[in-house]
Amino acid sequence: MIPRRIVFVVFDGFQSLDLAGPYEVFQHASRLTGGYRCEIVAPVAGVISAGSGLPVHAGAGVLDTDPSGIDTLVVAGGRGVDDARQDRALVSWVAGAGAAARRVTSVCSGVFLLAAAGLVAGRRVTTHWSREDQLRREHPDVTVDCDPIFIRDGRVWTSAGVTAGIDLALALVEDDEGRAVAHQVARELVMFLRRPGSQSQFSVPLWSEQPSSDPIRAVLSAIHAEPGAEHGVAELADQAGLSLRHFQRKFTAEVGTPPGAYVERVRIEAAQRALAEGDDPVETIARHCGFGTGETLRRAFHRHTRIAPSDYRDRFRSTTYTREYA
User: Fold this and answer.
1) How far apart are CA 145 and CA 258, in angstroms?
2) Residue 33 maps to which CATH number?
3) 242-255: per-residue pLDDT in tens?
C-alpha cells in the first residue's frame, strides 16, 4: 500500500492548532493502517512562527515541493493568512497543487488562501464565524455558510476554526479508511465527542453564559442530558428548588436567555443531530426531542434555521457525517 501524501501548508502567523490537530489525526491513523505520509511546507523551508509564537519546522519551501502526487492539501488558517494570500509565489503554488490534488481542504481562515488561489469559486464553504462577513464581502462568488463546523463540497472540504480541524480530519480519515479507524483515532486522542459536520459553530453551550450557581448548573445538565424530557419552567424551578418567579429571573440573569428559549434551542440541536445521523422520520424525532408533533418541530426548526427539517437532512445526511456537493 502506497501511503497517501498529506501536505500541510503553513505561513508566518498561522494558527498552531490548525496544523497540530489534523496532523495528529493523520499520524494516529497512519500508525493503525500505514495509509498516510504527512509533510509540512511553507513559503520557505525552516522555522515558521505560529501566531502564538510557537516555532514549527517546515521541511520544505513551496517552490522546492513537487505539487504532483498530493492526495490531500491542507491549508491552515490564522492571523497571518491576510499577508500569506498576498504572496504570489505561495498563492500560485497552492493553485497548482490544489488543482492536481485529489482533495483540497482548509482549516479556519485558510479558506482565504484557497479563495485567492481560485480553488473555491462556486463552492459552498465555511470558516471561523468571526471571518464570515469578510469572506462574503471579498469573495461574492463563494457561498459562505458559517453554521456548520465543516462542509464538504465535492473534493473541497472546509472547516471552522481551530478545534474544528480535528473533526474535519477525522471525517477525512473515515472517508478513506472507514468509521472504525476514525473512531479508534478519536479514542486514542481522547475526544469527548466526534462532532458531525452539521454541528453548529453557534452551539448553545458555546454561546450562552456559564451559570454561576449550582442549582442553575444542575438544571442545564438535566436539559442537555435528556432534551426530550419534561422541561417546563415549573418543572425546572422545582428541580432547582426555587420559586417559579425567582427561578426565571435567576436563570435568565445567569444564562443570558429565558429558560423556555434555552430548552427549545437545545431541542433543536438534538433534532439536528438526529436528522443528520439517523433514519428516524420527522415525527419520531419530534417526540424524542420534546416537540410532541412533527408540525411543532417544523415550525420551531424553521424559526431557528430558516429551512425545513427534511431540507436540513438532505443537506447534511451522509455516511461520513457530511453531504457531498458535486
Assistant:
1) 27
2) 3.40.50.880
3) 999 999 999 999 98
Residue-range definition of the domain harbouring residue 286 = 204-316
Last residue of a domain, one of 128, 154, 188: 188
Given 138, 159, 188, the domain boundary residue is 188
Segments in the chain below pLDDT 70: 192-208, 315-326
In a shared domain, residues 252 and 123: no
Q: Are 200 and 147 in contact (CB under 8 A)?
A: yes
- Which pLDDT score, from 0 to 100, does residue 305 have? 77
Q: How far apart are CA 78 and CA 276, in angstroms?
A: 30
- pTM as predicted: 0.69
What is the full DSSP assignment across 138-178?
Answer: H-TTSEE--SBSEEEETTEEEE-STTHHHHHHHHHHHHHH-
Given this model, what pLDDT does residue 200 score? 53
Q: CB neighbours of 54 closer than 8 A, spacing ≥ 6?
A: 16
245 burial type by CB count under 10 A (0-12 exposed, 13-18 middle, 19+ buried): exposed
163 and 225 both lie in a single domain: no
What's the CA gap between 146 and 128, in Å, rounded? Answer: 7
∠ at Cα 186 (175, 264), nearest 5°?
Answer: 90
